[in-house]
Amino acid sequence: MSPGPMSGRWAVAAGLVVAAALVWALSPFASSDPDGLERVASTHGLESEVRPHDLEASPVAGYQVRGVASEAFGSGVSGLVGIALTFLVGVGVSAGAVWLSRRRSDGSGVVTTAAGAPDPHARAGRELDDSPSATTSRVGRFCSRVGGPG
């Protein structure tokens, strides 16, 4: 079976399932001891200078979900929310990078991908000069970008 778009989607889905399972299974065992910054602040007597965080009133502040009585359940739900938000930010950044790479142009009027190859999806509706000299020029520009002969 050859790799294709669905194999990538399955890999992402499997990664999300594994991450969710790990968060759900391990979050009840998370340490309630102070983290590194809190520990340093208490060691050096800086607790008096601590002020409330701007996001302290958020629904998942302190790795807990407000209104959930069970601490273990609340930390699991908080972890799942963290996975979802991290995934959505990653998808957004990736989509933005793909969108920007498809808008790159080398000045020839042919929109190129991040690797410098002509983007076949961006040429729809444009006339493409398929004369031998134009094709040779495009191939030469592509090869010079990827380090091939040309």
Residues in helix, %? 40-55%
Question: Could you tell me the mean pLDDT?
Answer: 74
Distance between the termini: 35 Å
Q: How are helices and strands ordered from N to C?
A: HHHH
Q: Compute the number of helices.
A: 4
Sheet bearing the most strands, described? none
Low-confidence spans: pLDDT under 50, at least 5 residues? Answer: 123-127
Strand count: 0
Could you say which structural class the secondary elements and strand pairing correspond to?
A: mainly alpha
Strand content: under 5%
The radius of gyration is 25 Å
Morphology call: elongated
Report on the architecture of this protein.
With 150 residues, the chain is an all-alpha fold. Helix content is 52%, strand content 0%. The protein contains 4 helices and no strands. The radius of gyration is 25 Å and the shape is elongated. The chain starts with a helix and ends with a helix.
Secondary structure topology:
Blueprint: H1 5-26, H2 36-43, H3 71-103, H4 132-146
Summarize the structure.
By secondary structure, the protein is mostly helical.
Search tags:
single chain; mainly alpha
